Amino acid sequence: MLSQSRCLSRTLGRSFSAISQGNNVLGRRTVSGLSACHRLAYKNSRPFPDCNTRSSVFHIRYFKTSAACNNEVVTVNTPAFAESVSEGDVRWEKAVGDTVAEDEVVCEIETDKTSVQVPSPAAGVIEALLVPDGEKVEGGTPLFKLRKGAGAAKAKPADAPQPAAPKEEPVAAVAPPPSAGPIPTSMPPVPPVLGQAMTSKPVSAVKPTAAPPPPPADSSVKGSRSEHRVKMNRMRLRIAQRLKEAQNTCAMLTTFNEVDMSNIQEMRSKHKDAFLKKHSIKLGFMSAFVKAAAFALQDQPVVNAVIDDTTKEIIYRDYVDISVAVSTPKGLVVPVIRGVEMMNFTDIERTINELGEKARKNELAVEDMDGGTFTISNGGVFGSLFGTPIINPPQSAILGMHGIFDRPVAIGGKVEVRPMMYVALTYDHRLIDGREAVTFLRKVKSVVEDPRVLLLDL
After folding, report:
1. pLDDT for 272-302, tens place per residue?
2. Active site residue 98
């Protein structure tokens, strides 16, 4: 309630943005032309201690609000890269004037190992692109300017205005159809051709004229012989560089073997439904080979080692981190499964599924591909029968899987048709001798053919 009604007309002329009741004092001002005891007051407020009249005098609370900072222009910078990445190439997904929602991808930065997506920090309109497409950028480089709130966040399009009905033009009076004349009873005479005398020739004297030759066929219809050039992205350039470095540095040698897939196929067919029901992931063959490789690497630690060319030392790893080669539209990536020696089949399948999903969505980070002590490449998914993989430096060996095909094999002195797979191990002969390489590959073969070897630690 107002304590002094005569102050009402003099105080309503002042502007208040908002008034809140409570005991927290937000402001103390003296109304112009009033004594300390003749101010606008509100119930439940605390009185001033210096007021000596019988009327209660209370605090006045002043609030100030402001409109949202629409149309604010912000500059978005390049995000920080991982330690092993220093720069990347910009590939724009949006153009100047495009409306973007919050967290919508504006551009991608292609680095040596992966692509980094740069989202919009807020809804708005792209004001300017500060870097041309394909330009190299480093961490912290300004990329684009965004005007916040302008055309915010792709709101639902308003109902399209109905097109105005075309104005009806006055229809001209239709002329009445001409009256039908008398029906002719004979053919009209043919007018003579000017400048030529009317001559008659017998039919036998008329010689047939040769048909004009057909126009030459357009060669472009059958096929095009044009060519075009496309700039290599940074990932493909880096892959090419590393593969050539591996050939120039390592003394690569490949050994082969074949694996009978009968038992592992039977195990998969028998338990795949229960495995899928319990773990919500499919049981594949990759987990068997990854676990078999980890078991063989612990048996032959030199295959898990690497040469440090700087210090001329051999580094033996007491852990097993296996890189799994995955093909993507931008190139080959090798996400790492870490601590495989402590995983079971379920853990391996779940990790492979998660990494594969991130690779398909182009969400692999550099951290997902750093490290790795051994690599497995599965060309069998493309139907490969045989091949020699190339070492993924700085590792010392790589296992190549291939397709499963029925072939006749000798079993117990008899010829039987079995599902067989060729496997290949490429290794750095500077570090790994043939004995260790062949022993490693035979260990992988024995574990895949009979997984009970893992339980018995044979």
Report:
1. 899 999 988 888 888 899 999 999 999 999 9
2. no
